[in-house]
Here is the input.
Amino acid sequence: MKKTPLIQPVILAIATGALFHAAPPAAAAAAAQTHTLTVRADAPGKPISPDLFGIFFEDINYSADGGLYAELIQNRSFQYSPLDNPEWTAFSFWDLIKRGKASGGWALEAAAPLHPDNPHYLVLETTNPGDGFGVSNPGFDGIAVKAGETYDVSFFARQLYMDRRWARRDRIDTKPMPVTVRLETKDGEVLCEAPLQIETAGWKRFTATLVPARTDDNARFILLMKAAGGLALDEISLFPRNTFRNHPNGLRADLAQIIADMHPKFIRFPGGCLAHGNGLVNMYRWKDTIGPIEQRRGQPNIWRYHQSAGIGYFEYFQFCEDIGAKPLPILPAAVSCQNSDHQGGTGQQCIPMEDMPAYIQEVLDLIEWANGPVTSTWGAKRAAAGHPAPFNLEYIGIGNEDAITPGFKERFKMILEAVRQKHPEITVIGTVGPSPAGRDFDEGWKFARELRVPIVDEHYYEPPRWFLDNFHRYDGYDRAGPHVYIGEYAAHDAGRKSTLRSALAEAAYMTQLERNGDVVRLASYAPLLAKIGRTQWTPDLIYFTNTKVYPTINYHVQKLFATNSGDTYLETDINDSATAGTLATSAVRDSKTGDLILKLVNTGTAAQPLTIKLAGANAKSFAPEAALTVLTGDPAAENTPANPAPILPRTVQIQIAETFPYEAPPNSLTVIRLRTTP
Here is the structure.
């Protein structure tokens, strides 16, 4: 890193290309008053949650299928339907291919399926294979492949015997069916291919390996029969070998890595509204998402597309373990979303009381699956999937933004009491509705206090000004009452854009969360991911295409806080109330490293000259150099694909002392990390 001695105040100078210059213009300096910011480095401080900053994952904006999940084939198991999207059928995203003089047909069938939870499959029948008869798939807005990289093809197939009248019979043809799988450009150029021989009367899995000769961002997958006859096909899959941590059925490496780079303390999954779903039949049931992928139950996504369950509970827990984040699964509170408009009815629907014992057991089984020994029923299933060690589940959320109705209350109480009795080691997180105020919020808090719920989940999406006006929201919260998880929040700027202004409003608010980290236990921005051109919700933290990833300015704020978090809050004092409303500060200590981390958020349009004073004997224990990171720029700026100069954090090493000057640039977040001497 570049080393810059801090003798005079410093200010970021993005426009000139220099990282810092020594002093502001004379006129600005004359108008600015220097304030003293005292950090109580000598005080023991206040213990705060070590799990404060995490992430929220929901399959919205094609975040899972077509996004984080590395599968490259769309509608691989032929389960798409108008319930997913009014324009879709089971054949959607598949095209019939007839090369040369090939002839034949295709059909969707359900007799003798691969698995009852995967009921549909494709039948191909050809009388004349010509130069190849089969199907193609364009993936999710094209299949992006790289030259020289390995891609794994797999599918399930069984042969269909055709007699001389071309009627199907229930026995296998004596000859194998030759099949070719390949990747082609949209113009038909073959990038790579592999031959297979299909000879089986029952369902069997076949695999092949493809290595493209050149890179193509818009390839398509082709499967061709090379002889007359019939095939039943299901679960046709194309995966890059290079997934995150090289897991089979794994995650897209670049998207998973940019999430891992945040170092979140926890991951909430599988979502918010997606968890309790669009009507009872659309609830997310965790047991449907584990086991072999061909046995998982896909279903309509509440955001109007399809969820294959390819990323299931095993993959969520595995990802948490891979990046050192605690798992935080959210289960329905036995009620559907109050905004449901499913064909089974509208509004909040409740699981019938006679079915509640089974549903409660489902919740308890999840805890056993995550934490139980391999000798337990569900621990054995986890071990069979390749993870004999427990996942060390600590938190479980029950409900999401639910209307606090009598039906909700009755069912939530039953679930809470069952978990308390069977698993007192698990911390249950309740819900207080979708808004930061109002009837459900008030009723939810009253109900949570009555039941002594350990933590409740607050949600809010508000303008940047709201976050600044509510800077003291948690100062007066009862420390003896339920603690808080801010499960979904974001500052929505004009046009619902991800601007520096919104990011700094969130940063200022996050200093409050650190200050109140004894009552605010967890917090996560939402939503996390969005595929460009496939969004149902904006703004989002990270945007992506099939080949590129675009972190927003808000992402960099979340990353700076998560990677510079602590477990002890230290008091800070400033000698002038004139900075209130424009300058937010927090100081935390990380007990693992001994570092003191100071955060300064200047939401004003003028620079803030400061004298920073490290009070007490502990001030002498810090190394003379500290890491200084600044994020600043035009408050209306966004990090978009069209922006050639995105706003990014800049870090240098600076010299510090017990008292040292610093000038916080206008519209900026500053993080100063002071390290203790050995």
User: Anything to note?
Assistant: The radius of gyration is 28 Å. The mean pLDDT is 92. The chain has twelve helices and 39 strands.
